[in-house]
Amino acid sequence: MSAAEFFAMGGYGFYVWGSFGVTLLLMVVEPMLLKGRRRAIQKRIARMARAKVGER
Amino acid sequence: MFETFLAIVRRDLILAMRRRSDMLTILFFFVIVVSLFPLGIGPEMNTLRLIAPGVVWVAALLASMLALERLFAIDYADGALEQMLLAPQPLSLLVLGKVAAHWLVTGLPLVLMAPVLGIQYDLSLDGLRVLVITLLLGTPALSLIGAIGAALTLGLRGGGVLVSLLVLPLTIPVLIFGAGAVEATISGLGGEGHMSMLAAILVLSLFFAPLAAAAALRVSVE
Amino acid sequence: MSSRIVNWFKFSSPATFYPLAGRMIPWFTAAAVILLGVGLYMSFFVAPTDYKQGEGYRIIFVHVGTAWMSMFIYVVMAAWAGLGLVFNTRVSAMMATALAPTGAMFTFVALWTGALWGKPMWGTWWVWDARLTSELILLFLYLGFIALQSAIDEPRRADRAGAILALVGVVNIPIIYYSVQWWNTLHQGATVSVSQGSSMGTVMLWTMLIMTLGFWAYAIAVVLARVRCIILERERDTTWVNELEGGVR
Fold first, then answer.
1. Is the pLDDT of residue B151 over 70?
2. Is C112 in Cβ contact with A46 (below 8 Å)?
3. Using the beta-carbon criterion (under 8 Å), do A15 and C225 form an inter-chain contact?
4. pTM for this one?
5. Which of B203, C143, C179, C195 lies at a CB distance of 3.0 to 4.6 Å from B176, suitable for a disulfide?
6. pLDDT by residue (tens digit) across B85-103?
7. What's the start-to-end Cα distance of chain B, in Å?
8. How close C90 gets to chain B, by Cα (Å)?
């Protein structure tokens, strides 16, 4: 089976890759969003901790 | 027990009578929504006859969603709700009383108005009869299920839209069996099966919804 | 032997659950990557071409797993919510909150792949089939849960209101599903099952199972990561969080 044949999926290429592609995309985007969310809250906590030290 | 229930119903009815315009607004909404469909779809009677059960039912569903916001909001604003939470009587009974009064004010007018709207759509006499029966069984269930949503969204910003978002998916069975009964009757299949399902949903929601709504009120008010 | 009995309530405190979740995430991430890798390989190279549906049927390897996860996650979410309501444990409620977006994501993927499967097979993107319709309603239920929780500012009320909604939803799901099925058969709509016309081979079943397990491991990893975020956001003023995260950068 050639690569071109494989990507054509017997004429169903758009549907098959559309399904797998979007699923994979969402499964990459979701962890990345979470990473961003985690970084944001960590930064905020660190800032608050520094502010507390500064008060003293 | 029953006296408490009646007392709540009577109180809420008196309060509602002082604000009659609320009640009329909902009824007008129902009438207008139903009357808009022929304008959007076209005056072809065969089509209209076909969609009539669905249109009337969806409109009734939307109208009762619209009414939900006021179910607890006024009592919440003036503090009466907090007193009810502290009352020795079970809260779910008070909720049931409030829902009953609410239905009498907002649900029953829809039921009474429905045959008139059905005539606009050229429904047969049998169809009209079943439409009224299903609405009579279905709208109390809508009010009961809706009470849970109204209690959960009490005092939240954008509560009106939010309550529809929460409650509408839960009311789908009522819509399916309600509109389905009318449709089955018109097409000659007989809507008894649908109607008994609708009655079962009503009984279930009569039992469970006040409990859930009472729990939700405690969460929202505390 | 009494020392071996685990005190589960110990883990219901955010301070102990947070590091535990952190230790579990790499394992489930690894499991997800391996299982999904194997599953994808099997989906494309091991599973044979279907004699009736050609290569298009390979969509079911994502569709079935995600559809199954979407329903499973809602039940798990309701279970955590119920636990949180009964035992008043904060972590349980946070778990329910953390599960909802991932569940909604899987529901969306199931709908999306269903549509992409339906277009070549049925000729339309959308069919009011009982399963697709129920899946759509499930998405609405998830969105309602998320919308309710995000509309409430006070965390404790958000937890408990969400719990009540999730429980009401989970009680309703069988009724909704049954009524949709009734509605569907009455209207003689398309009652097409995804596996229609093809006898399910062993290889296909295994592929589906491995993919589903991969999604399951992925869901656990992501939900644990999200619950860690939620814990930090809610407990940002406590000493343990400041000791743990205050020094970072």
1. yes
2. no
3. no
4. 0.89
5. C179
6. 888 888 888 999 999 999 9
7. 25
8. 15
Higher pLDDT residue, A48 or B150? B150
What is the percent of chain B with per-residue pLDDT over 90, rounded to a whole number? 41
Model confidence at C78: pLDDT above 90: yes
Q: Which chain C residue has its CA at the smallest distance from B198's CA?
A: C179
**What is the mean pLDDT of the segment spanning C220-236?**
91
- Angstrom distance (rounded) from CA C219 to CA C228: 14
Question: How far apart (Å, rounded) are the C-alpha atoms in residues B114 and C65?
Answer: 45
Q: What angle (nearest 5°) sits at the alpha carbon of residue C163, between those of residues C157 and C168?
A: 130
pLDDT mean across residues, chain B: 89
3+ Cβ–Cβ pairs closer than 8 Å linking A and B: no
Task: State the average pLDDT over residues B57-77.
Answer: 88
Q: Which of A12, A20, A14 is nearest to C50 (CA)?
A: A12
C-beta neighbour count of C57 within 10 angstroms? 24
Interface predicted TM-score (ipTM) of this complex, two decimals: 0.88
CA neighbours within 13 Å on the CB side: how many for A36?
6
B-chain CB neighbours of C151 within 8 Å are 153, 156-159, 162
Question: Domain of B144?
Answer: 2-221
The count of domains in chain B is 1
